[in-house]
Design a protein that fits this description.
The protein is an alpha/beta fold and 396 residues long. Helix content is 40%, strand content 20%. Strands 1, 2, 3, 4, 5, 6, 7, 8 and 9 form a nine-stranded mixed β-sheet that branches. The protein starts with a strand and ends with a strand. Residues 188, 190, 346, 348 line the site of magnesium ion (MG).
Length: 396
């Protein structure tokens, strides 16, 4: 086993002043959670502004790195070779072996950057840089030194052990989940809402989700697709509760009572109301949707205003200004695209009118909703009370 330890570098959370430890602790918690399903035993520690993942014995290196690439707050993952051997002559040999093992293609430029946390170490950092550079050049004559733009920046740190590392694997960036409250994602089976959830979780927000289905008009398979999407999002966002709300009676009632061209807007307003009620009950402070201006009739600015009209919580719409292709690119990157394009019906598309209003007038819509007075409160109450809660991302 080459790398016993992974050095975790974080970016933004380094700037949080007095609260920095809260961010570091949240990051360590998320790292531990992400590594749980990975083969191996890991210890996650914090030391002098750095986080280390130390493997105890054999572990699945590839899986560990893959898991860490999904932990928000990580800027870089640096796999380290560690040795307790501090004798400089032996260290030279180890550094040479490290370079030989990690870079089978030797046509590369390099620079050695040595540091001594242990100032009693008998060789100065400059001397270490020179001498280590020399032995590497001797062993691998194809390599060249470039102190300005090296292909390989080889770091050698003498601490209680010696850390040797040069590879930097990019993490996802962002902030550790759990450092920024909780929000409720309206998760459909489409492409946009999983991306929206990912983007808000990336800013450190814990997420729960709500899905509206309309059995028997929407199938069990359509519901399962949303559960699958929630599982995929929780690979980044951590465990989440998915509230599955039966929307059939509400939809049918709106269909009976209201003008059909207003159906989608009125339905969307009830989705927001119900999502907000569940959010309040479960400690979320905001809603998240995958809306993007102009994408469909219900996402014109007038429609968005009409939908927003019923919300008292902030509504986060992180993909509001994105083109469809930009959203698709993110969904491919995070691995939700293939599931999102599975062809199952959506409750929004089943009851759509041929010519939905694209510029709804809020007063007209409010007026139409008056026609629902008799039964709607009861239906909403029942929908909320009879919701099913699915726990997602437990095994991450
Ligand atoms: P998506 O790709 O996320 O499904 P969309 O382009 O199909 O979005 P709409 O169907 O108008 O757009 O939905 C807009 C947003 O409303 C979605 O991004 C989602 O946040 C929410 N939403 C729509 N349908 C549902 C549903 N059945 N359950 C939960 N949320 C929904
Ligand atoms: Mg949709």
């Amino acid at each position: 086993m080459l790398y016993q330890s992974l050095l975790i570098k974080y970016a933004e959370i380094g700037t949080k002043g007095k609260n920095r430890f809260l961010f570091e602790d949240a990051l360590m918690k998320q790292i531990r959670c992400a590594l749980k399903p990975v083969d191996g035993t890991f210890e996650v520690t914090k030391e002098a502004g750095r986080i280390y993942v130390q493997a105890d014995g054999e572990y699945d290196y590839e899986d560990a790195v893959e898991a860490l690439k999904r932990v928000f707050g990580i800027a870089w993952i640096c796999p380290m070779f560690q040795t307790e051997e501090k004798d400089f002559e032996k260290l030279k040999k180890q550094v040479t072996e490290y370079v030989g093992a990690v870079y089978p293609d030797r046509h590369k430029t390099f620079k050695v950057d040595s540091r001594r946390a242990d100032k009693k170490y008998p060789v100065s950092s400059e001397q270490m840089n020179r001498d280590l550079g020399e032995v590497i050049l001797e062993a691998y004559p194809e390599m060249r030194v470039d102190v300005h733009h090296p292909d390989i920046l080889l770091r050698v740190e003498v601490r209680n052990v010696v850390n040797i590392y040069s590879e930097m694997i990019p993490g996802p960036g962002g902030m550790p989940v759990g450092t920024n409250g909780k929000a409720m994602l309206l998760l459909s089976g489409g492409i946009d809402s999983p991306v929206a959830g990912y983007m808000i979780a990336k800013r450190g927000v814990k997420i729960d989700a709500v899905y509206f289905h309309a059995p028997p008009y929407t199938s069990e398979r359509a519901r399962q697709k949303v559960v699958d999407l929630a599982e995929l999002v929780s690979r980044y966002a951590g465990p989440m509760q998915l509230h599955v709300v039966n929307f059939t009676d509400i939809q049918l009632y709106i269909y009976e009572q209201c003008p059909h061209e207003e159906l989608t807007i009125i339905m969307r307003r009830y989705m927001m109301r119900i999502a907000e009620a569940i959010a309040k009950e479960t400690g979320s402070l905001a809603l998240i949707t995958g809306e993007s201006i102009g994408q469909v009739a219900s996402q014109t600015v007038q429609s968005l205003a009409a939908t927003n009209d019923v919300c008292t919580m902030p509504v986060f719409r992180p993909v509001i200004g994105f083109d469809k292709q930009e959203i698709v690119d993110i969904s491919e990157k995070i691995g939700t695209y293939e599931t999102s394009i599975e062809p199952y019906e959506d409750c929004c598309t089943i009851f759509v009118a041929k010519h939905p209003v694209t510029k709804p007038n809020i007063h007209v819509i409010r007026n139409s909703e008056e026609k629902l007075q008799e039964k709607i409160d009861e239906l909403v109450k029942t929908a909320i009370e009879t919701r099913e809660v699915v726990r997602c991302g437990e095994g991450r």
